[in-house]
Each structure stands twice: as C-alpha cells, then as structure tokens.
Amino acid sequence: MTVAHILATKGRDVVTIQPHRTLAEAARLLAERRIGAVVVAGADRTVLGILSERDIVRMLAAHGASVLDDPVSRHMTSKVMMCSPSSDINEVMGMMTEGRFRHLPVIEDGKLAGIVSIGDVVKHRLAEIEAEHRAMREYITMA
C-alpha cells in the first residue's frame, strides 16, 4: 500500500502556518484544529518546516512563556523528512520510527500535497492486516 491510498481516504487538506506567525498563534491553531503538528509553508505551498505540540512544550520548558512571542521560524524543524504519494507505507513507518516523529508531509511536484500521521499509517496498516486475515480465513474454510 502507498501513501496515495491514505490520502484518497483522509483527503489532502493540510493545516499550514506562515513562518512569521508567533508560537502563540501556532499553539492556538493546533488546539483549534485538534492536531499535533502544523506545516510551515510559503505562499507557493513549499514546505519550509514543521512545528509540533512537543516543539512548543519544549521551548516553553526551556525558555518560559516569553517564547510564545517568537516567530515560528525560530523554533520550527527546518530539516523536514518528506515522502511522496508513491511512497510505501512500510517505508513511511520506518522513517517515522527511526526519526522519532509523528507527522510526514507529502510532496508532489515540489509542493505540499498532503500529510500523513502515525495514526493514519497504523489505521491503514491494521485494515490491511485485517483484510489479509479475513481472506486467509475464507480460504481455509473453503479448502
């Protein structure tokens, strides 16, 4: 299965924020949308970085509440791992596990085309395993 299968089910909408916005604005956006990360993108939908709830909490712990006035660009992860719609789900799971992150922007023709979370990947992988299990049971009962 590929990332395209996940995007076909969940859609390609991605919540983004501009790099000059503040961490406070990013935190509000994450809370309002009930998401764990926001992609920092340019007006042309190029990925500049990513900012997670964990990033914000770590900055608050290290620097105090004044950090909420800082621009997102100062604290975002700028070396973002990305995938394409044709990326294999097992590959994506490996990237997330090895890199210890939970959100992966999907890039197509150099532009943001979606995002997958570890929850999306696990959900689709479990559905795939269940379908294989069902097929195996049907095969055994038919034999």
UniProtKB/TrEMBL annotation:
Residues 8-67, 76-132 form the CBS domain. InterPro entries: CBS_dom, CBS_dom_sf, CBSX3_CBS_dom, Diverse_CBS-Domain. SMART domains: CBS. The keyword Phosphoprotein does not apply. It holds the Pfam family CBS. Keywords: CBS domain. SUPFAM superfamilies: CBS-domain pair. This is CBS domain-containing protein.
